[in-house]
Amino acid sequence: MAKKTYLQAIAEALRLEMRRDPNVFLIGEDIAGGAGTDHRGSVGGIFGLTSGFIEEFGADRVIDTPISESAIIGAANGAAITGMRPVAELMFVDFVGVCLDQIFNQAAKFRYMFGGKAKCPLVIRAPIGGGLRAGAQHSATLHPLFTMFPGLKVVMPSNPYDAKGLLIEAIRNDDPVIFLEHKLLYGMEADVPDEAYCIPFGEADFVREGDDVTLVAFSAMVPRAVEVADRLEREGISVEVIDPRTTSPLDKGAILESVERTGRLVIVDESPPRCSMASDIAGIVAQEGFAFLKAPIEAVTCPHTSSPFSPSLEDAYMPSVERIEAAVRKAHAYRAAA
Amino acid sequence: MSGITAVRIPKWGLSMTEGTVVAWHKAVGDSVTEDEDLVDIETAKITNVALAPGNGVLRRITVDLGDTMPVGALIGVIADAAVADAEIETFIEDFNARFGVLKTEGAGEAVFQPATVDSRLGPISIGQRGDGSGDTILLIHGFASDMNSWGFNIEALGEGRTLVALDLPGHGTSTKNVGDGTIATLAAAVGDVLTRLEVERVHLVGHSLGAAVALQLAELLEGKLGEMVLVAPAGLPGSTVSSDFLNGLLTARRQRELKGYLEMLMADSSRVTHEMVEDIIKFRRVDGVMDALGKIRDQINSGEQFAGLGALVEKYRPLVIIGEADRIIVRDSLQENGEVKVIPYAGHMPHVESPNEVNALIVARLG
Known about the structure:
The structure holds two protein chains of two kinds. Chain A is α/β, with parallel strands linked by helices.
């Protein structure tokens, strides 16, 4: 089994599915590398992820578009309901605002409004997240926005192995899937099988097993959560790290099952705190697992403000290993008043 | 510096590059005998006990519990009580100074050279060790396993022989086409591999499902068959395969639940690691695997295909090695005799749990 980066694993998933199914095609800005050229030396998108695709699959299946997100998603929607399997790319998730009608009001509702007779097997890939000093307009995650909307599936892979298996599942899935790739993870390396494989949606990964505190994290927050778990293990604090992998559907059973055992819950969410996955999961556990809790639920999130450009401020803005560790310690140390 | 023996991180698995020292069976100052249980080493796949490499007194432990070290690294020193402390210090310094070299010496020795061979079902992945000289041993793994399960056996069995291990159809990186999923079909595909490799004479060592495949395969080998060793064989008269295990292995969803089933494999369930569970989960997700394993499982559960195996045992008289605490293959009786050896304190994987005993039995049988 070869080591592959998160970026390579995503590219491999796309390549395997495009070879397997001629209905799969890519559409986005600069994904070939400049329309009107002969594509020699094509850049393959802003991160070079689809580099080499136009050479293998041709311009009919690797479609460069003008700078118009509403055109990209609108065209992809239309193709999807006629039986194609488009994989559309938004250069940064922050730009989704201009095509929200195509996503929320069209793609997410086709199946519902046509009484189950239409399906929309659309994948929207979008880089998310902070840490690259990219400023307020290129650093958001926005996963809570998609998660609150019925009709969409929302995927947040935290490692190369999951990225490949979840993307193949997304492409084969008959519903619109928002596939959120964290920019900080593109260089992360891990063993990734060469074959095609699918990871089902709504199946959480117990990344670390533990008995004292349940720590739920998504995407780039998972490696940070694991670092905290490994650190605290040396002190005898046993932390269970759960990566739900998808926010919609959410494997709430995994979280409740774990909290039933630990009684203590910390959620890490790279998002402003209001209407976040942190508040969502805290709400679910408060409603359905109140009797399990031995301590108040802790949430480690960004503050309610836009992502700062200043490196030192951005570091303070994103949930850090130190903040996560402090929250886990606080939950672990809590004792109810007698 | 005679009388000083280095205790090093062993190389067990094909992919093992490092090991973590989790527990010592001896304290510094205890006397140890060669091949005595000395230290528990955890790898990414499994935890196992490393045996004392020599006689003497455990004079030094050079690592802390929980330390992870590369294969071959020094973790302790065994020496005669008469050897001076200063001499031992020098030995440790020398060893560590030369370790950069020691590490690369013999690296890959225990590793299979991978290759792909065509069969009637499709490409079969094989691993070969040895230069083709000496006898050839073919290692056939069990259900939902792969060639890596022989990690604790290749060094001992490979001495002076050529080893070939393969991934059965539906397993590892071999084709996921298993035809009708019967042992006869799997055996025919394995037979194709031996034909392609132009093996003149071959000893068969099969585990569980692989043992049943070996028996079927013997029928196809005519004059080429050497000895046959069946480890925890499936399908023999007077035994049944746990369908709970087979079904659980394929359907258990949560990691914890699957771990419970994998623990059935071992007498000592603490050997099952998180990574071992992950490996199975990851394997099940690969395109075609669930169909392939499902077909093979259905054939095992129906049991019809095992009807003729008793007669084949009579015909070929294999050596049968079983773990006393096997919870996967349930036997009516456990009678040890010249051709059946029972390994105490081992479960369904005696070649993993008690590799030294199993290796010795196999080597003795091969002569």
